[in-house]
Amino acid sequence: MARVAPFVIFLALTALQGAFGESSRYWMYLAKTVVGAWMVWVMYPLVSEMPWKINVEGVLVGVAVFAIWVGIDPYVPKLDTLIVKLGFKPKSGELPWNPLTFFAGNAALGWLMVGVRTLGSALVVPPLEETFYRSFIYRYIANPDFTSIPLQRWHAASFFISTALFGFSHNEWLAGILCAMAYQWLVLRRGRLGEAMTAHAVTNFLLSIWVVARGAWQFW
Asked: Does residue 76 sit within a domain?
């Protein structure tokens, strides 16, 4: 429950973004970030492999993943484009997540939402996702008694299935898969989540800076 419930709750709150009008895409993100931060606080002492570890290795992997994410983007079709090609209908009329445009009449509020998204993606998302994908899903595929599986144990099916699940949960699916492989490599190498959480945080923080500086709102 400590590894799964917070992620599921966070995912459910994500699904509610936009459900109550366009403004709810932003207010629900703020709400889920606050709830997510509280859940991280609660689960932190319950998940022994979770403590954050900041080192050069994690930072370098995070920077490399960021470079891959933005570098391959122009050359790889997005997941929603592939879905349309398969004959499914696209989402109708959803605008990019851009609080500076949506709250154009209130710059302070717009920048507040940018700050919330940046901090949420860098400090809340990494522990929730790394705990779920790298600690739970990876090991559960190998053995439902997942706590009996050391984090450093290589299991091919677990590696490729868990990285695919992570990748296809993002519109930038190929970058997501490569990203998950890099983070999982850190976990396998160290037998803990700390470095992967650092890498994930660095990637998301740099991506946030890129989004705002370059106006690349499609990444959000």
From this structure: yes
